[in-house]
């Protein structure tokens, strides 16, 4: 705690019957601050570079919170190890920290730290070899080598290589393989040959897979997510994939795995998956706010894990100034043991488009739908379904000519029978706040010829997450959607148009306001949507809880186009800014501060945007 000025005084007072009273008075004083950190012996690496990787410092803007300017012997030892790794990752194979001196001023208010080091020479990789019982083909193992001939020696790359080789061999059941890296140094050429010695040990078999923490969820719900099987040899890949599948279930807050050797055996293990359940069945009533939809009132009876079976049942009522929704839904993700899902829903919805910043009209819609999901492979899924809805369109006295023209031509009531299908490729490690993987999806929706309006809609989405550095993640998102009519219908119904602008597409522009306008100069939407987003997810200051709170810097681009318009890249709108999302106890809270980069006359700018208690496009 750096309380070097502490004063401790004890007072002993005799008491009757051979007893004493001991009173200890403590004056903590102020914490000693680090006044200066001196580095001696670093001739090639600048002081600022080394001081930048240390946790201890002479203070900064947030030191009153982080306490990084208070001396700690434990933190200093960690910083010395960080400096050692910093050099070893840059080729300084013989780097050493010779000594450290800590001195404190007579008034015990300031600490001086001096670190003496010897950098040594830099070494390059001359050769990389694999030696021992490799188990798998050498060519396959060589793909795991992170070092390249001609690169500078790096202990970090060696560690990553050891882990990669171990995992590759672990897929064949040799879970406790021992991988050692032995450098062979050539002082004359300042090069080093690295030899990886592989000792696979015994092939390990899984005796039993157990689950703990699932007080409500049945074991079979967890077991059907397993890719590692009992009585078979262990696979590090299957163990990790099984854990990922548990994390992707919405009714667990946390999931972890523990592999333990079976006592008195040399080739058997037990695998225990530990989960922490989240409340999955509840009655919720809440309020929220969206700048597009205004105040929201929501009441729902939702059971993500009905009776511990993994089935989802929900009864929802949502009300806002834009729409009112009544909906009952059901989904069984494992109708068959092979993972074929089946679900259906029944709904009634009213919409006031003017409240959503669109052209003036309203709709009353009721309908139902059924869908089936089929896992094609571990990461690929196919869905097919059918939907029916009955739409009543209502114009207002201020509706645009386009609305009246559409009603004159097609009437104001439409029955639609649609087929839907989609393909999804998903390698993300989590559904909410993922930090690695790819999500791609292609969806097709078509109204059958027996419908009153004949049209189709196509959509492609792509999400890609890539780790730039520790705690910095690059997220690329793209969405292209197109719709059109067929047969006697020469276009997409306007109430099926795509829209852009707002928190989920191009931030900095008012929700749904980009694109074509009607005769009253209000947004009408279009049949072609193009949206792209680039985000760098940033580390959350002062906390490691990145799974419930996320901040990012972003660049958005996009627009929508009318049926009679050609795609024009000059009409794409751009914006940049910062955003934050928090999975709060009352719902999803998101906000963004954005600056449009190329807004034009007539665009509706909204730099600060936020939503509370509404869904978010992950």
Primary descriptors:
single chain, 618 residues, mainly beta, Ubiquitin-like (UB roll), 4 domains
Number of strands: 29
Cα-based radius of gyration, to the nearest Å? 31 Å
How confident overall, as mean pLDDT? 89
Counting helices, strands and paired strands, the structural category is: mainly beta
SS summary, helix count: 8
CATH architecture of the largest domain: Beta Barrel
CATH class of the largest domain: Mainly Beta
Biggest beta-sheet profile: 16 strands, antiparallel, barrel
**Percent range for helical residues?**
10-25%
Description of the structure:
The chain has 618 residues and is mainly beta. The chain has helices spanning 47-53, 63-66, 73-88, 138-142, 155-170, 219-223, 236-248, 401-410, and strands spanning 7-15, 19-27, 33-40, 96-104, 110-118, 124-132, 178-186, 191-199, 205-212, 252-261, 268-277, 281-290, 294-303, 312-320, 323-332, 341-352, 362-375, 380-394, 413-426, 437-447, 455-469, 472-485, 508-509, 528-538, 549-561, 573-584, 587-596, 605-606, 608-612. The protein has four domains: 7-118, membrane protein fhac (Ubiquitin-like (UB roll), Roll); 124-199, Roll (Ubiquitin-like (UB roll)); 205-277, Ubiquitin-like (UB roll), CATH 3.10.20; 301-612, Porin, CATH 2.40.160. It contains eight helices and 29 strands. The strands form six sheets. It has a 16-stranded antiparallel barrel. Strands 3-5-4 form a three-stranded mixed sheet, with no helix packed on it. A three-stranded mixed sheet has the order 6-8-7. A hairpin with a 2-residue loop joins β21 (455-469) and β22. It is globular and about 95 Å long. It starts with 6 loop residues before the first strand and ends in a 6-residue tail after the last strand.
């Amino acid at each position: 705690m750096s309380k070097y000025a502490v004063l401790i005084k004890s007072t002993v007072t005799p008491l009757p019957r051979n007893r004493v009273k001991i009173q200890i008075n403590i004056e903590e004083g102020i914490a000693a601050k680090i006044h200066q950190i001196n580095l001696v012996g670093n001739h090639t690496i600048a002081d600022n570079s080394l001081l930048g990787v240390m946790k201890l410092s002479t203070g900064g803007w947030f030191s009153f919170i982080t306490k990084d300017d208070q001396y700690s012997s434990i933190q200093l030892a960690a910083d010395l190890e960080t400096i050692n790794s910093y050099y070893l990752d840059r080729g300084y194979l013989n780097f050493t920290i010779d000594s450290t001196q800590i001195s404190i001023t007579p008034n015990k208010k300031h600490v001086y730290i001096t670190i003496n080091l010897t950098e040594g020479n830099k070494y390059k990789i001359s050769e990389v070899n694999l030696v021992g019982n490799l188990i798998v083909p050498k060519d396959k193992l060589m793909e795991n080598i992170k070092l390249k001939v001609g690169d500078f020696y790096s202990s970090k790359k060696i560690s990553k290589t050891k882990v990669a080789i171990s995992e590759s061999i672990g897929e064949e059941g040799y879970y406790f393989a021992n991988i050692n890296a032995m450098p062979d140094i050539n002082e004359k050429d300042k090069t080093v040959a690295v030899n990886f010695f592989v000792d696979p040990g015994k092939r390990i078999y899984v005796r039993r897979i157990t689950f703990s923490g699932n007080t409500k969820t049945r074991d079979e719900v967890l077991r059907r997510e397993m890719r590692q099987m009992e009585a078979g040899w262990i696979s590090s890949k299957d163990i990790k994939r099984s854990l990922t599948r548990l994390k992707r279930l919405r009714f667990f807050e946390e999931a972890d795995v523990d592999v333990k050797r079976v006592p008195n055996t040399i080739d058997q293990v037990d695998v225990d998956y530990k989960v922490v359940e989240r409340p999955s069945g509840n009655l919720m009533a809440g309020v929220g706010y969206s700048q597009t939809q205004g105040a929201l009132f929501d009441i729902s009876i939702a059971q993500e894990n009905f009776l511990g079976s993994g089935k989802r049942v929900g009864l929802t009522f949502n009300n806002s100034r834009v729409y009112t929704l009544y909906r009952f839904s059901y989904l069984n993700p494992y109708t068959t043991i092979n993972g074929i899902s089946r679900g259906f829903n029944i709904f009634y919805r009213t919409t006031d488009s003017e409240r959503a910043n669109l052209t003036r009209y309203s709709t009353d819609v009721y309908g139902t739908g059924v869908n089936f999901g089929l896992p094609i492979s571990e990461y690929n899924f196919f869905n097919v379904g059918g939907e029916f809805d009955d739409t009543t369109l209502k114009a207002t006295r201020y509706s645009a000519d386009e609305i009246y023209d559409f009603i004159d031509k097609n009437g104001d009531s439409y029955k639609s029978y649609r087929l839907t299908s989609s393909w999804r490729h998903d390698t993300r490690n989590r559904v909410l706040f993922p930090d690695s993987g790819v999500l791609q999806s292609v969806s097709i929706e078509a109204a059958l010829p027996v419908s009153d309006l004949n049209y189709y809609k196509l959509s492609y989405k792509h999400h890609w997450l890539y780790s730039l550095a520790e705690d910095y993640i690059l997220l690329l998102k793209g969405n292209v959607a197109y719709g059109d009519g067929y047969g006697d219908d020469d276009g997409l119904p306007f109430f099926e148009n795509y829209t852009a602008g707002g928190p989920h597409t191009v931030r900095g522009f008012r929700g749904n306001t980009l694109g074509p306008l009607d005769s009253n100069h209000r947004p009408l939407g279009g049949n072609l949507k193009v949206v792209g987003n680039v985000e760098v997810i940033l580390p959350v200051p002062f906390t490691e809880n990145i799974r419930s709170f996320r901040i990012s810097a972003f660049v958005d681009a996009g627009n929508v186009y009318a049926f009679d318009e050609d795609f024009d890249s000059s009409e794409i709108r751009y914006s940049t800014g910062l955003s934050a999302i928090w999975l709060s106890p009352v719902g999803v809270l998101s906000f963004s501060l954005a600056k449009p980069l190329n807004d034009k006359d007539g665009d509706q700018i909204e730099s600060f945007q936020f939503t509370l208690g509404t869904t978010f496009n992950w």
